[in-house]
Amino acid sequence: KGKSNNLDAKVTETELETEEKSMEEESTRESDSSILDVSSDYPREKHISIQRHLADLEKLADLKEDERKPCPLCPEEKFKACYSHKLHRHLQNLHWKVSVEFEGYRMCICHLPCHPVKPNLVGDQTLSKMGAHYHCIICSATITRRTDMIGHINRHVNKGETESRFVTVPVPKLSREVLKESATDVQVLPNYSTPQKTDSYFNPKMKLNRQLIFCALAVLAGERKPIECLDAFGATGIMGLQWAKHLQSSVKVTINDCNENSVTMIQENCHLNKMKVKLNTKEEDGDETMGDGEENTDTIEVTKMDANVIMHLRSFDFIHLDPFGTSVNYLDSAFRNVRNLGIVSLTSTDISSLYAKAQHVALRHYGCNIVRTEYYRELAARIVIAAVTRAAARCNKGVEVLLAVALEHFVLVVVRVLRGPTPADDSAKKIRYLIHCQWCEERIFQKEGNMVEENPYQQLPCDCHGSMPGKTAVVLGPLWSGALFNTGFLRRMLFEAAHYGLDEAQPLLKTLVCEAECTTLKHLTTQSPCDENKQEECGVYIKTPNASDESPLVHGKRKSEEVMRNAPKRQKPEGSAEHPAFYYNIHRHSIKGMNMPKLNKFLNYLSEAGYRVSRTHFDPMGVRTNAPLAQFKTVLMKYSTPTYTGGQAEGPVHLAEGVLAEQVQAAADGKEEDAEFLEDEKSGVADAMFTADHPTPCAAE
């Protein structure tokens, strides 16, 4: 009997397995037939839970007043058949109100056995236990949560996928928008402004960044021709197209991207701008295709590789890195094969970490300890340059910083590569730590040397550690301690910007030139061809038609060894007039109850006191100067006026306040006699203010 029972059990198990297989085959056939029968009005054919109106959902139940009907979206064991009024409330409250809307359709929640629940720990794997879920109108996926379904639909929209993947009818081509920038046309998808969710990311706010990089490339193209340049992250290819369209035969442009859709978009944009395209998806060369017109005979090479791979395989004179976020993962490859005296530019958009909002991320990516300071933007630029310098030094190369810009959306760094261990050692020595006082915002780089300092607070010019309790300073870094700008290179960039009509870059370049020279804007003069000899003493040259014979960079692929050895030596005197590090914010150090002078007037006051001074692009209210913070505050207090509520004359107020500031300074120096004399003079001025209703201009002075 026991044997017969076992045989019966085996027979029943085999019968169940065959029945299940037949059921699966029937379901797959039904799904295939439903897929083949999809018409252009595909959302209603996808699943019965996707409807336009509640009435359409009620039609599925075939409501009648005198009959009990089951719910079309719930199994019988979950919701039993009922009359029409109760079923109407059920469909409206349980299915329709929690639906997800997309293009006029509602994806209602479904309780049918379409999405099986994972088995529990007990092992209950009954087919009747199914979970509530939604059916995607685009890809027929089943998702349990409503918020996840909304995010799933949004991802489809951001990728431009608004048609079903399973329809057999041809999918219409996505509508594309044509944008124009600097006489270059590019096609983009409608969601081009969403990063990481589109294959053609294009940010119009980065137009200034693209113009600065173009000016740097134009300067390099004037030094030697032709140069091989690489846009490692092409996206739409807008940057490489601008290079090839304006510089023409001076450059050989290579646009790279690892995304296949982006590569296709770049090819179409090349054809749109009537450029030849040379497609190269592997190490060997690819085929050439011609655009619609043959006006431009230049060829753009489009590659589909990882950025690290193409920079390891080939050598370039100019490399630009603009990944989404940090670019530290590509620095080693960029400096591996870059040619001597070439240029590497990188744009970092990880602003949250560089601007000390996510300090742990900065420590992880750049190995740098930072805090939020008043000069956080320059701090971010020096962090990136320090990472660039370390990557170049690992390849036995040094760097010369040509340009460092930190604005609201990005940090741009442009460096020239100097091959050899000696330039690498000289550049590595400029990476130092910074001592920052958290009370008064005073800062200074640590002294060179490996010996341990007994009292590091002695290096700071302020005495906050002696007057304040506890530890008052922090050590930041490692940071780049050298210059951030090359004056001659910036002047040549300004010349190229004016030559090509880049109006947005010219004001910024003028500010950078003044900041590099640490002078005010009124002292900036446009260089003429007769002034080239004076500019040559600084080791940099302005691009003019007569400058080809004097330039140390000849118009060939390489220079002679003697000139190559002398080039870094001739550029050395540029560091003698190096601009001061960091800047002070005039609002941060303002005096409570006092009206500050205008910023331009304050710059003149500091200059008259014998200090170098200029404005800075990092902060619109920042002042770059070599004056210590104590002298900065003294001059600021001297020319600040008290905030009066009454309508008094401005002339005597300035005089009285100026005398008061001199009195404070005299009392601080211990000159009691001068202080008494100034007190008498102050009282006389106050009497004159009281008696005179209309003071004369000479008295005001």
Automatic annotation (TrEMBL):
UniProt keyword Ribosomal protein present: no
Recorded superkingdom: Eukaryota
Compartment(s) of residence: Nucleus, Nucleolus
Domain C2H2-type: 136-156
SUPFAM superfamilies: S-adenosyl-L-methionine-dependent methyltransferases
One GO molecular-function entry: tRNA (guanine) methyltransferase activity
Region (Disordered): 1-39, 549-578
A GO BP entry: tRNA N2-guanine methylation
UniProt feature, compositional bias: Basic and acidic residues: 19-32
Reaction equations catalysed: guanosine(27) in tRNA(Tyr) + 2 S-adenosyl-L-methionine = N(2)-dimethylguanosine(27) in tRNA(Tyr) + 2 S-adenosyl-L-homocysteine + 2 H(+)
GO CC entries: nucleolus
Keywords (A to Z) from UniProt: Isopeptide bond, Metal-binding, Methyltransferase, Nucleus, Phosphoprotein, RNA-binding, S-adenosyl-L-methionine, Transferase, tRNA processing, tRNA-binding, Ubl conjugation, Zinc, Zinc-finger
UniProt keyword Ligase present: no
Gene3D superfamilies in alphabetical order: N2,N2-dimethylguanosine tRNA methyltransferase, C-terminal domain, Vaccinia Virus protein VP39
Annotated family: Belongs to the class I-like SAM-binding methyltransferase superfamily. Trm1 family.
Protein name per its UniProtKB record: tRNA (guanine(27)-N(2))-dimethyltransferase
